[in-house]
Amino acid sequence: MSRPRKKKLGSYPTLLVVFSITLALVVTGLFGLLLLHAHKLGEAVRGNLEVQVYLDRDLPETELLRLQQDLAGQPYVAEQNGRPQIHFVSKEEGARQLLQTTGEDFHNFLDDNPLRDAYVLNIRPEYTDTTHLRQLGRSLEQQRGVFEVQYPKSLYASINQNLARVSLLLLAFAAVLVLAVVILINNTIKLAMFSQRLLIRSMQLVGATRFFIRQPFIRRATWQGLASGLLAALVLLGLLQYAYLEVTQLRLLRDDYLLGALLLGVLGLGTAIGFFSSYWAVTKYLNVSLDELY
Length: 294
Fold this sequence. Notes:
Elements: H1 14-47, E1 50-55, H2 61-72, E2 79-80, E3 83-84, E4 86-89, H3 91-102, E5 118-122, H4 130-141, E6 146-150, H5 153-194, H6 197-205, H7 210-246, H8 256-287
Antiparallel strand pairs: 1-5, 1-6, 2-3, 4-5
């Protein structure tokens, strides 16, 4: 009859620690991806907001060109592929759009077209809050050749208010989740270090310095945190690519810069928690009395 294998003194549950940290980091990263895409969705919504700049009647072509160039140089005008998002709508085109929308032709009871030529501007997301829009409207109305500036103030205010509320709620959940993950990983490493307490005391008894004792444990836990971060980043990338294949519209919200920052954050979080948790755990067992080790 074979004897049961005895657990070696100081045996460390490496796979369990790496698996636990990786799982916690994946959960954190998934919520980070949700925040990232929610942020890009908010920017997309704000980026579709338009401001109508109605012009004085019978402006010459040179004045229209000058005004377009002035508007194109403004910092609040959105760009796409390096081109300012400015669209000229003549009063004739406006009349056709009105006819398509309402089904009524005002030419039946009016001799002249009452509409005005206009420039339609797409505004950068960072300029779509109420304060910036009010300043923007006053600045545009002071331009030579501009008759009136219009945009749906109540709609813009409602969109900004709702986006701010959702962002605040998501950030609150993110803070709670990160705190829970930090505590979970910290406790996982502390439990793993519990199996090392007798080895730490043995090293103390043979005269090893505190730095010499800490070094191998901190190095191992740091590498485990780094490996867990790498595994979590790979899992997140795989899940994200699968989501892009299943829901192709999600690709419109992709931001490689923010995604890279998120993955580096996951990597750094795992490494930092591994380092500090092992440091605190080893220090604890260096300071406890012999009776408290059992």
